[in-house]
Design brief:
The complex is a heterodimer. Chain A is mostly helical. Chain A has one domain (5-264). In chain A, 66% of the residues lie in helices and 5% in strands. Chain A contains 10 helices and 5 strands. In chain A, the strands form 2 sheets. A 3-stranded antiparallel beta sheet of chain A has the order 1-4-5. Chain A is globular, with a radius of gyration of 25 Å. By secondary structure, chain B is an all-alpha fold. Chain B has 2 helices and no strands. Chain B is elongated, with a radius of gyration of 20 Å. The model of chain B has no long low-confidence stretch (mean pLDDT 86). The chains are: A mainly alpha, B mainly alpha. The A-B interface holds A 22, 82, 197, 200-201, 204-205, 208, 241-242, 244-245, 248-249, 252 and B 53, 56-57, 60-61, 63-64, 67-68, 70-71, 74.
Amino acid sequence: MNIPTLNFITRFAADDGPAIHVAPAEIFHVGGVAITNSILYGWISITLITIALVAIARKVTLQPKGGAMQMVEAGADFISSAVVDAFTDKSRGRKYVPFFVTVFFFILLNNWFGLIPGVGEAIQRGENPVLRPFTADLNGTLAIGIFTMVYVYFASIRESGGIVKYFKHFFLGSPLNPLYLVIGILEIFTDLTRTLSLSLRLFLNVTIGEIVIAVFAYLGHAGGFVTALPFTLVELFIGALQAYIFTVLSLQYLAITVNHATEHDNHDLTEDEPHETIGVDRDRVGEATAA
Amino acid sequence: MFNFAAEAINTAVIGKGLMVGLGFIGPSIGIGIIGGNYLKSVGRNPEAAKFFGQALVFVAIVELFGLLAFASTFIVK
């Protein structure tokens, strides 16, 4: 059957568990390139997000009118204050506000568009759903994660002032010390897993949410809408939470390096000064030894 | 007499159940510890309530391992 059918009709006929898809499915081909359902819905939601946000941005006034604009303003203000607060040097932090606010709204609205009734398992073409949330596809979240982390790496290298100084941040002291060398190399490898952990977290949360909603819609039979509703509301919260967590974690990855660079602009950990200790005034150490 | 050997048992289902069940124990304990300690610190010092966002970030870090256990079940055939 190649025409889209509503799932609740087929659900009465076959009782072999809820239809669950973890991977996106091909819908059609364009010049040999397979277009999956998540790509299709990604295009739709990106178009809607762009139109909605541009329309809202055009109407910005000193005294906000209308609910949608206030929500966008509250979200943008929330993220921009989080971004500025994360940096010790506020003027440096302000430069990164637009990027992180964009990432936050992109993920948030993609998560929420995935919860609209009809997206997911509801409308099917053959075996596969026609529409799939963009963030419920590992390729999509991996694209967001790689893009974000590449931006973070470039910004950290620029803020540290060169690639050599950037890699120096991974070492506690001189890399010639074998212990510091091993710890530093371990830190570099830990850093590389961040891309994967960011994208896997987002993908798994959204996909598991889709599965939970599908399972409870299946358990409700004819009243599937009622049984799935509480979990859809939970997913609304989780979608917002995951967008916030993605933004804040990638922000922290950047802020750690930038703050480190700001603190140690004039100070190298390897130099032969006495280390800073709690309760000891750095300027008085010299006096004590001189006396 | 029962003849268990005659029925083919799909052990993959048991494996998947064990993976999800055991894999979710750790993150559940971890999230409980994070939430409990957050509430404890807010009880001692109500100003610590501003760290709710950071507590959620740590919840997300812990939660990832449970989700990985869930994702691994799709490898089992």
